Amino acid sequence: MYELARRESSTNTVVDVDGVRIGEGFCVIAGPCAIEDELQMETAARGVAAAGADLLRGGAYKPRTSPYSFQGLGDRGVALIAAASRRHRLGAVVEALDAEHVPLLAREVAMLQIGARNMQNFALIKVAARTGRPLLLKRGPAATLDELLFAAEYALLEGNPNVVLCERGVRGFDPHTRNLFDLAGALRLKELTHLPVIVDPSHATGRRSLVPPLVLAAAAAGLDGAILEVHPEPARACCDAEQALDLESFSELMNRLEALRPSKVATAASR
Amino acid sequence: MYELARRESSTNTVVDVDGVRIGEGFCVIAGPCAIEDELQMETAARGVAAAGADLLRGGAYKPRTSPYSFQGLGDRGVALIAAASRRHRLGAVVEALDAEHVPLLAREVAMLQIGARNMQNFALIKVAARTGRPLLLKRGPAATLDELLFAAEYALLEGNPNVVLCERGVRGFDPHTRNLFDLAGALRLKELTHLPVIVDPSHATGRRSLVPPLVLAAAAAGLDGAILEVHPEPARACCDAEQALDLESFSELMNRLEALRPSKVATAASR
Amino acid sequence: MYELARRESSTNTVVDVDGVRIGEGFCVIAGPCAIEDELQMETAARGVAAAGADLLRGGAYKPRTSPYSFQGLGDRGVALIAAASRRHRLGAVVEALDAEHVPLLAREVAMLQIGARNMQNFALIKVAARTGRPLLLKRGPAATLDELLFAAEYALLEGNPNVVLCERGVRGFDPHTRNLFDLAGALRLKELTHLPVIVDPSHATGRRSLVPPLVLAAAAAGLDGAILEVHPEPARACCDAEQALDLESFSELMNRLEALRPSKVATAASR
Amino acid sequence: MYELARRESSTNTVVDVDGVRIGEGFCVIAGPCAIEDELQMETAARGVAAAGADLLRGGAYKPRTSPYSFQGLGDRGVALIAAASRRHRLGAVVEALDAEHVPLLAREVAMLQIGARNMQNFALIKVAARTGRPLLLKRGPAATLDELLFAAEYALLEGNPNVVLCERGVRGFDPHTRNLFDLAGALRLKELTHLPVIVDPSHATGRRSLVPPLVLAAAAAGLDGAILEVHPEPARACCDAEQALDLESFSELMNRLEALRPSKVATAASR
Q1: D touches which chains (3+ CB pairs under 8 A)?
Q2: Scanning every residue of chain A, which has its alpha carbon at the shortest distance from the alpha carbon of D66?
Q3: Smallest Cα–Cα separation from A138: which of A111, A162, A165?
Q4: Strand partners, D92
Q5: What is the pLDDT of residues D184-217, one digit of tens each?
Q6: Subunits close to B (at least 3 CB pairs below 8 A)
Q7: Is there a domain that residue A240 lies in?
Q8: Burial annotation B79-116 (CB, 10 A radius, 16+ → b, else e)
Q9: pLDDT value at position C222?
Q10: Where would I find the beta strands (DSSP E) of chain B?
């Protein structure tokens, strides 16, 4: 059994990421799938900051199914997001694909992401955990909830308690959505563990029109946040163009989320 | 292509079930999985009516995996729910398992349900549709969205436009939940069709603690309603005891749903 | 638990279908997906008989996803396959979609099929079982092995011991095959039950090139037979054209199966 | 598209592993899940060599779901299998979990395995491919065939043409088997690529009784081989005890496979 990840009381772990307390209220992490150039990064960062995002996401090392797809800007991407992060006072979340990415990321960004493809890459999880940086651990598309919690346990055993879990869709059979978003699984996770649980409706569905209602759903259901893809010009995005929100839609979503908040707080209080 | 079920404009179909207009606002259908006896039916009906449910559900003919499980009260169950329905002025929703159940149900209850196991029992769908009664058509656990819409098309082609679709979970791999609740699929359905779409989080998860947050999620996401299992004494339920809410929890959920409503309306308006 | 379907000893049930003993050796059932006209039925029946098939299949009532697809010739199709069956001395296997099809089928054909979509249409299973005719019960695309065995139990409880189970693919996620052929599940079934277990690689894969190797695989693994689609002119088939073998390929497959037989016998003997 | 992995003619790639030519005939790779100690390794190696295995498998670095499970002997395990490999003249196949394992493995063993959990760990694949050693690339439990072929493409692009693909089960829903063995998918792979394709029925099913019939099935269907777990005393195995064959069962399987061979060759010739 996952001794450290297991919930043993009603107390929830709060993970502090550059002052943003994940596990208290509903946290929004937004930004482009891939960091493409300075202008795109800056425009995205300024836009999501203005709309009220809590943290900034952006991919520098991209795990692409095909070796012929854009593989990310690498270390230069890290420099770009780190600069945008400082300018807009938004902690940055960037995925580490390989142990060799970890030192630079630990120095430059607020939170390291372990992607779905690497959920059971325990060597990488351990290296990342040892930095002490908060980790965002995404559920793999065929992973059970217990497998995700055991993966988190690998990180916790390194002495790093700052682990946030993320549901991003499991493999489904319907071609209308890219994956099958398991909201009930994310809620069940909250019963099994004290760690914060957020959702990634962009990757879960691959379809931008479904992202705003699913973020609202996650907030109403009492989850801890969402990470989503926002791009200044989705049609020109280097990857996952179909699932990114533009800045206007993101801003509108943030307003709708705000409108939900009072009732959500009442809701949470009543539990 | 499903010519009749396909969305061609922003106009949504509203299905009138004994005066309850499914497709306008968020509709709640509640009641026991199986009708067990007069007292249980009456207590359940009175309780869900008092808490503000819109319609009353109850199973008279139960499609049970095992022939050794309780198979329902049959016609007597229909009489019990019909009486409770009249007493509490709540339209009743009952599943038809076989063409021979259809005439009695069409006479006694407000809405006929076609269950997930029968989603592609086209003979049954056609017989039920010909009664003109509103139909609640549940998605099968391995059905794609297109297959569900084609099944609805069989009903629509009989000249009955009153079809409500219901997502109740697809077959998943995680043992923590009975099925995998496909909220994103339900939202995608709303894009593909003008028919109302509701959810059944009781069957989707098989776990009562997950039902209230998923109902709130469905409402916040803009779906048209939920059908859920409520039992006066869940621990004594003849079937699916693990997923039924008791009356107090149901009442609390209805209050939380009410608290969500203003922001939900604002949300819907902003679309 | 499924008391009657459960294996309790090493004795296997043999189901006699017009003299063909399913459960002894490897049985081949072949014919068109849908009966289209007299010439097609006759050509198919003559061809599969000449190649050595044991039984003849053909659909008269077709359960089609779309109401706009060809729905089968109905009762006239039954007459055509019954005549071809007599001419070529091959027992016929035809699917019943509805209780009202059962009396005619029980009179005219050797074996009644309950299709995958109706695996949990218990009303239909019971009506079909009461005829005493052998039943071919197909596994639904989301059904567990236990659910299939419970469905068989409904038939066995009617006093009809002549039930053959069929694996025809479960819902998978890879677009290269129509379903996911669960050969290991079919083998596991043989451990759980004394009933014969055959496979349907045509529906399981939807791809004719994969049918012959999968039939050989099923035979080598020790299963009891295969049902497959054979059409005189696959390119002109009214339904499932992609998965039907032509007569020449079917004949070649039967030769390859024959070549496997000695070693298969040796294999079975060694267990 | 996967340019290098894609089949463009009927010519198949043959991968030479210490003189064993994978892609010609049916290759058997056998040995324990985890290398436990010198005696176990030696007994297993001697046994599988005597029974006619072509290559020896054994895990030194174990990717375990739980951090509390046995994690393998590490480098010492590599030394043990390398010694057994030399003594019995059987090339060894060992999984690399991390880039830092690769140099030792490339020096000591005949073939490097990339496990299912790392199928999209492209950094690891590239490092392993650059050694020039033959690679055994296992399909991930949620990977489509195209995703597997793209992963192979990452290796091929490093200039290493010696890639063997392995189907080891995808995530299924039935608790009777650990995974869902996708034999049809493995056959479809052979149509899509010129690379050899083998199967791992031990991990695919998690149940030793199903391993022999599935190996026979794979051979009859024309696949290129199987990798399976064999342990001198399965009941004492450190991991996956339920799926390992003992030496006697393995030897019996090799005899049954031999009996199948003539007809298999005839079969292949007729294609």
Answers
A1: A, B, C
A2: A150
A3: A165
A4: D56
A5: 999 999 999 999 999 999 999 999 999 999 999 9
A6: A, C, D
A7: yes
A8: bbbbbbbeebebbbbbbbbbbebbebbbebbbbbbbbb
A9: 97
A10: 15-17, 20-22, 27-31, 55-57, 91-95, 111-114, 135-138, 163-167, 197-199, 225-229
Total structural domains within chain D: 1
Q: Do C97 and B122 touch (CB under 8 A)?
A: yes
DSSP string, B247-266: HHHHHHHHHHHHHHHHHHHH
CA distance A234 to chain B (A): 20
Do C173 and A175 lie within an 8 Å CB cutoff?
no
This prediction has a pTM of 0.95
pLDDT at A239 (0 to 100): 85
Cβ-based interface (< 8 Å): residues of A facing D: 2, 63, 65-67, 97-100, 117-118, 120-123, 140-142, 146-147, 150, 153-154, 157, 170-171
Q: What is the CATH number of the domain that holds A191?
A: 3.20.20.70
Contact criterion met (CB below 8 Å) for C91 and C18: yes
Is C181 in a helix, a strand, or coil?
A: coil
Give pLDDT tens digits for D115-146: 999 999 999 999 999 999 999 999 999 999 99
Question: Rounded to an integer, what distance in angstroms lies between the CA atom of residue D151 and that of residue D157?
Answer: 10
* H runs (alpha helix) in D169-246: 183-192, 201-205, 211-221
In sequence order, the 6+-apart residues with CB closer than 8 A to the CB of B10 are none
Contact (CB, 8 A) for D211 and C221: no
Strand C27-31 relative to strand C225-229: parallel, antiparallel, unpaired? parallel
Alpha helices in B20-143 (DSSP H): 38-51, 75-88, 102-108, 122-130
B37, B188 Cβ separation under 8 angstroms: no
What Rg do the C-alpha atoms of chain A give, in angstroms?
A: 17
Considering only CB atoms, which chain A residues are within 8 Å of C171? 173
pLDDT tens sequence across B143-170: 999 999 999 999 999 999 999 999 999 9
D70: left (phi over 0), alpha (psi -120 to 50) or beta: beta
Q: Is residue B142 part of a domain?
A: yes
* Cα atoms in the 13 Å half-sphere on the side-chain side of B241: 8
**Does B14 map to a domain?**
no
Q: Which residue has the higher pLDDT, A62 or B271?
A: A62
Domain of residue B207: give its range: 26-269
- Do residues A50 and A103 share a domain? no
pLDDT-based confidence at residue D262 (cuts at 50, 70, 90): low
Asked, for residue D145, whether it belongs to a domain, the answer is yes
Residues C216 and D220: their CA atoms lie apart, in Å, by 6
Number of Cβ pairs < 8 A linking chain A and chain C: 6
Beta-bridge partners for C92: C56
B185, B197, B156: which is closest to B22 by C-alpha?
A: B197
* Rounded Cα gap, residues D111 and D94, in angstroms: 7
| Terminal CA-CA length for chain A | 27
Per-residue pLDDT tens over the stretch C118-153: 999 999 999 999 999 999 999 999 999 999 999 999
* Token pair for B18: 């004994």
Per-residue pLDDT of D157-181, as tens digits, reads 999 999 999 999 999 999 999 999 9
Q: Would you say C119 and C95 are in contact if contact means Cβ atoms under 8 Å apart?
A: no
Q: Taking CB atoms and an 8 Å cutoff, what residues of chain D touch B171?
A: 173
Q: List CB contacts (< 8 A) between A181 and chain B.
A: 182-184
Interface residues from chain A to C (CB-CB < 8 Å): 171-173, 175
CA end-to-end span of chain C: 27
